[in-house]
Amino acid sequence: MEFKAGDIASMLQGTVDGDTEVKVWKLARIEEGEPGALSFLANPKYTPYIYSTSSSIVIVNNTFEAEHPFSATLIRVPDAYSGFARLLEIYNEVQRNKTGISEKAHISPSAKLGSNLYVGDFAFVGENVKIGDNVKIYPQVYIGDNVSIGDNTTIFPGVKLYSETQVGRQCTLHAGVILGSDGFGFAIQSGNDYRKVAQIGNVIIEDNVEIGSNTTIDRATMGSTIIRKGVKLDNLIQVGHNVEIGENTVIAAQSGIAGSSKIGCNCLIGGQVGIIGHLVIADDVKIAAQSGIGSSITVPGTIMMGSPAFEIGRYKKAYIHFRNLQKLTEKIDELEKQVKMMIRK
User: Looking at the domain covering 100-315, what would its CATH class be?
Assistant: First the structure.
């Protein structure tokens, strides 16, 4: 699709410095610009490229002042980065504006469908499913019985929603997400074998949640595993049964949360963090990557680091000693030798 500089400026409520009729049909980084491309300049370190770029249009801050001649048409906005992000959002909406139900999809007669849907090839929609308006279901998605999906939610290829799962409005589930598979529940029997404990609960995803590719969230043993509104989960995360994650918490890739732990609101959890079961983590807690959380964190705003993790200030002090451990050992050995020599005398 082609856009004129004047049209883009209108979308971003900016002003054109140059040719309002110049057209672009692709996006490019400013250092890799070419004719027909749109770029942006937000970081001052990339300013030299504006004088050499071949991009047809560059989005800049209102405060930008050129020191040398340049060829691009400028679109001036209050914040170039935010403006470009908004443009990407619009572009994404256009690219993903799919509608219609494929003849190759299976939809149960008992399913209740909203308006303006997209259902791709080989998607499966089970009994008594409720799907809201403007939902996009990409090819090969499985939606089990009694699932509900809110308005404006996008479900990418290969997602599996087990029965009874509830997904809210304006959610995004990326490829390979699995919601509602069995929690890891087994009871030890005599003879050291295990009896599976039936997992009869469900998963609830509230509004405005985004879940990355191949993340899995287990159904509760009883009750619900709950992901509160605004949560953002990266790829390859495991969330155990009966876990609750509070509003607007963000968790990076390869983290794992064991069953029945409760995580507060507005937490930031780094990659490869492990959290054992039945813990409580307070609001606004930050946990550094690769930390191991073995006990509850009850003070809001705490920053944790290490495995096993403890408060970050103490961790950094302890780490200084750890790095000097060889020197400290040598010093102790030398002192022991001196003490022994003194005793002999």
Answer: mainly beta
